[in-house]
Design a protein that fits this description.
Elements (H helix, E strand, L loop, with lengths): L27 H13 L45 H15 L4 H8 L35 H7 L4 H14 L1 H13 L31 E3 L2 E3 L3 E2 L6 E4 L20 E3 L4 H5 L44 E3 L2 E3 L12 E3 L13 E3 L128 H7 L6 H6 L1
Antiparallel strand pairs: 1-2, 3-4, 4-5, 6-7, 8-9
Helix pairs in contact: 2-4, 5-6
Length: about 500
């Protein structure tokens, strides 16, 4: 699932009710989809870029460092899955969802849509893999890994994560971001719909951990038990499965005459009002002192913001997993180049990388990777969405809202589209801001973040061959896929299509 490469892929069984997206598994498939989409929008796991193992991305071991660069997520050594408090977390989330919330899915949907921030119930001192760092491990953050019931009970994004997703998307895909903000502001709300039928309620005290129904009365070594019960000498609750043939828990039980007894989904406290309970959380510690102000951002000279054919470089662009600003050389090319803004006359889907002036150097442009981080730079929160247009286009028969007109962007995020443009023409592409925005500052340090998928191997670092270096008139090299005899006549100043794909 290479969400950081421009697409998110999940298998079909994650999204069907009979698979992982039904109430028996707490609609875990939809949470996986949300997790992957926000990787695509720029978020990392709270515990780092790897997949919750000791071989994190780049070969580095897990640590308590600030791995996701979001200011209000805590330092986490790993997810709850790999922690020493996992069993406590499962029992706590089960009790929270079934006892505190009564297993009510309508109330769960309301909690999920009710705002940003870590809920108080997800601040537990017993869940702290980095005790020297502020905050506690997040059990229900959508960007971490945990058992599905924890997301049903505690699911959330932090405000810093939402702001980071806005910032990264606005920087790297300003056209889509501007259109999204535009339609979010002017599109009418959908008509009210009749309420859906109530969700089927699954009683955890009458099903196994794989949601197989229990017998209401069953015998085990001469003793009779009812539904989920305590078996002497065993931890937790157990029951005999009602129908072995339809229960995956009993797939290994070849002799159907032998009872299939499996562990129940509910806990002793939840079902019998006795047994171990998670310890109550102690009072929260005071907030840590504010972090010192970060160093000022690197200033890019004006001469390093344009290509040799006069097109403006993107303020922030990505290559091979790193971010760059203005003219740079991520692949080691002796001549600097950049990704240009869509306003460039020669811009196209396969033509967006252009060389900069050959006199520029790494030193003269102060080239270095750009850090997109709330914990390394400060900025104001993103502006409010644009207001709906005052009136529509006169005489237009289109039912769609008018597309945005090109207008000068603010110094923070891409410009908001305006009305008054002929809807029969392709919408203009809003330009990114002239100055590099910085990710928003955090409210206060809080708990953890979710896991990301292992990124694919880096593409080959190809650079234009010597045969395609620009001629004496300083025009950039022609596209490789054109015939050589046509190159010098038809094209100049662009990297080849193959190079575009590599870059």
């Amino acid at each position: 699932m290479w969400a950081n490469q421009g697409h998110a892929f999940i298998t079909w069984d994650l999204m069907v009710p009979a698979g992982y997206n039904g109430p028996s598994l707490y609609y875990g498939g939809s949470r996986v989809l949300l997790h992957e989409l926000f990787h695509h929008l720029g978020l990392l796991h709270p515990f780092g870029p790897g997949n919750d193992d000791d071989d994190a991305e780049g070969g580095s071991a897990r640590s308590c460092s600030d791995d996701d660069y979001v200011s209000d997520t805590p330092g986490m050594l790993g997810s709850a899955y790999s922690s020493n408090f996992y069993s406590t977390a499962v029992a706590y989330c089960m009790e929270r969802f079934w006892e505190t919330y009564g297993g009510d899915w309508e109330a769960t949907y309301a909690r999920w849509s009710g705002g940003l921030g870590t809920p108080q119930a997800d601040m537990n001192a017993w869940a702290d893999s980095c005790p020297t760092k502020a905050g506690y491990d997040l059990l229900g953050n959508y960007m971490t890994y945990n058992t599905p019931v924890c997301f049903a009970a505690l699911g959330h994004f932090t405000r810093g994560q939402a702001e980071m997703a806005h910032y990264v998307t606005a920087e790297l895909n300003p056209i889509i971001y501007a259109w999204g903000q535009y339609y979010a502001a002017v599109s009418p709300s959908p008509p009210p719909q009749s309420p859906p039928p109530p969700e089927a309620r699954i009683d955890p005290c009458n099903v196994t951990q794989r949601s197989c129904a229990c017998k209401q009365s069953w015998d085990f070594y001469g003793d009779t038990y009812s539904s989920c019960s305590v078996l002497p000498g065993n931890e937790g609750l157990w029951c005999e499965v009602l129908d072995q043939t339809s229960c995956p828990d009993c797939a290994g039980n070849k002799n159907r005459t032998v009872p299939c007894v499996r562990k129940c989904s509910g806990t002793e406290w939840m079902c019998k009002k006795r047994g171990p309970r998670p310890p109550p959380p102690p009072p929260l510690p005071p907030s840590p002192p504010p972090t010192p102000p970060p160093p000022p951002p690197r200033a890019v000279p004006d001469k390093c913001k344009v290509t040799s054919n006069g097109c403006k470089c993107r303020n922030t662009w990505q290559y091979n997993g790193k971010y760059w600003s203005g003219c740079a050389s991520p692949d080691g090319d002796k001549r600097l180049w950049c990704q240009v803004e869509p306003s460039c006359p020669d811009y196209g889907y396969d033509s967006y990388l252009f060389y900069c002036d050959r006199s520029l150097t790494l030193d003269s442009c102060r080239v270095q990777p750009v850090s997109i981080s709330q914990t390394r730079s400060r900025a104001d929160p993103p502006p409010a969405p644009p207001p709906p247009p005052a009136n529509a286009i006169s005489g237009s028969s289109s039912s769609q809202p008018p597309p945005p007109a090109r207008k000068q962007p603010s110094s923070r995020l891409p410009p908001r589209p305006a009305v008054g443009v002929n809807t029969s023409r392709a919408p203009p592409r809003p330009r990114p801001p002239a100055q590099q925005p910085r990710p928003p500052a955090a409210q206060q340090p809080l708990p953890p973040r979710p896991a990301a998928q292992q990124p694919p191997p880096s593409p080959q670092n190809l650079r234009p061959p010597a045969s395609q270096q620009p001629p004496a008139n300083d025009r950039p090299p022609p596209r490789r896929r054109r015939l050589r005899q046509q190159e010098s006549e038809q094209h100049g100043g662009r990297l080849s299509r193959q190079q575009q794909q590599q870059h």
